[in-house]
Amino acid sequence: MSHDATERAGAAPALTITDVAPRDGLQNQAVAISTDAKVELIRLLARAGVRSVEATSFVSPKAVPQMADASDVVQRVSRQHPALRLSTLVPNLKGLERAHAAGAAEIAVVLSATETMNQRNINMGLAAATAVSEQTLLRAAELGLRTRAYVAVAFECPFEGVVNADTVLDLACRMLEAGAGEIVIADTIGAAAPAAVKARMSMLAQAIAPDMLAVHLHDTRGLGVANAWAALEAGVRRFDASVGGIGGCPFAPGAAGNLATEDLVLMAEQCGLTTGISLDELLDAVEFAESLLGRQLGGRSSAWLRRRRERQRAAA
Length: 316
Ligand code: COA
Ligand code: ZN
What we know:
Layout: E1 16-19, H1 21-25, H2 35-48, E2 52-57, H3 70-80, E3 85-89, H4 93-101, E4 106-112, H5 115-122, H6 126-142, E5 146-152, E6 156-157, E7 161-162, H7 165-177, E8 183-186, H8 194-207, E9 213-216, H9 224-233, E10 238-241, H10 261-270, H11 279-293, H12 302-315
Parallel strand pairs: 1-2, 1-10, 2-3, 3-4, 4-5, 5-8, 8-9, 9-10
Antiparallel strand pairs: 6-7
């Protein structure tokens, strides 16, 4: 535990990365992942220097069976890693109460920017989803929890196509007014391109302080890192990413893996921006996830990162 980078001294990193692999990455996997394995994955992430993790979701176990052990995950991880920022996705008040009962200190509500995506994801329309997200944020504040609010399909919706920027801004402002501590703009299906990311995030950055604005990217079309760079240019310093690039919403057709944490960390390092995360130790988490899922994982950089590690080991 004392090995956690969360407990190492040092200046705050330039980028804050929330690794969402334990939730976004595992929620849609065909093979059942044990609670022990989830806790171990989070331990490896913390050891690599990740300071913020989205550990699980308190959703209907009928909708997402893989997240049925959410309470156990939260209880065990909060005990083992008290300094780790641990977030949990909740779709409604019932999810919030479950998260609170398990001892979660942070929740994230999920509001999609279109009517159809809300219907498919959480079985309510846009107006109802907005109201439920507001109620959940207000109740979370009463309970003293930290909060994030996702605005999902914030660029393109698999059902309704390109999403209007004003709609995204409006929903983000509604969530801020309801007390959200951080707004997470999500390209849920990985359909955005760098020019749109720069334009939309720049527009949002006019209304939302940099320490309250995050971006959540998927790498479906191979533009994840380019989109992250565009967000950086727009002033964004908070990113969601997923170790090994695993991820995707089960209710959004075409949602392939998330932007891989290792790709984002490498890009940041090479641009002189600190993340506090060790790439070599992150590879241990990639390899552990591979052992769980029985297939090769990793972002676009991982083959090169593994070769570099081999060279370094051979030279040592
Ligand atoms: N956690 C666990 N169970 C929940 C729950 C939650 N947060 N919210 C509702 N339920 C239960 C209800 O208690 C009820 O149980 P019962 O059938 O035993 O009485 C059942 O689920 C139906 O409740 P209802 O409020 O009618 O929900 P619904 O069927 O309209 O489903 C959601 C709404 C939000 C619960 C469901 O769509 C969901 O969990 N979606 C998950 C979406 C997701 O994880 N997407 C990926 C990440 S973005
Ligand atoms: Zn996602």
